[in-house]
């Protein structure tokens, strides 16, 4: 997420806010109260777009702002009938530029301060109730058939497993994400951990949502830059 340049970006944000209804502004602020970057989701090579798109919907509803998508064999496209517009409000980062996309994603997230948490029905260090949330975590999800790659298993800082009491081997990925993210975000909300967005991230996200909500936003912004003799990068 880019830094919010205080004076210039604030003026642009103030301009866009004038075009929103009071109800829209209130809705944005209410949703922003629960947005977090403390937990991020990573989907590795999910080939069933409906499942991955259901995860996006869950991320939006539980307040997870950033979703990382690793494309090795399979390219992911949002399924609009399942996502129901949720991707519009999220930051999606794809890793698909090299032969080592999984390693690139892990390196990026670790350098960003995240602990790598691999979800697995077979390996258990923690349950959703016991995993430590003091440090930011990146939850890695693999396919139902093959699970996560060996690269993730080897580089993971810890593992998490949802308890199961039936005959079936694992939960569907979208169900796993829903169970985990609901439990973990509820724990965050009840904790004293600083999980909410920083002021800079809050304003940057609000500006991004304004751009996506105001009709003719690109023309408004272009005129703003022209009048201020400044041009976007």
Descriptive terms for the model:
233 residues, alpha/beta, Alpha/beta knot, 2 domains, six-stranded parallel beta sheet, 9 helices
Task: Give structural notes.
Helices cover 44% and strands 12% of the residues. With 233 residues, it is an alpha/beta fold. It has two domains: 161 residues, Alpha/beta knot (3-Layer(aba) Sandwich), CATH 3.40.1280; 29 residues, no CATH class. Strands 3-2-1-5-4-6 form a six-stranded parallel sheet, sandwiched between helices.
Brief sketch in words of this structure:
With 233 residues, the protein is of the alpha/beta class.
Largest sheet, spatial ordering of strands: 3-2-1-5-4-6
Number of domains: 2
Class by helix and strand content?
Answer: alpha/beta
**Regions with little confidence, pLDDT below 50 for 5+ residues:** none
Number of discrete helical segments = 9
CATH superfamily of the largest domain: SPOUT methyltransferase, trefoil knot domain
* β-strand amount: 5-15%
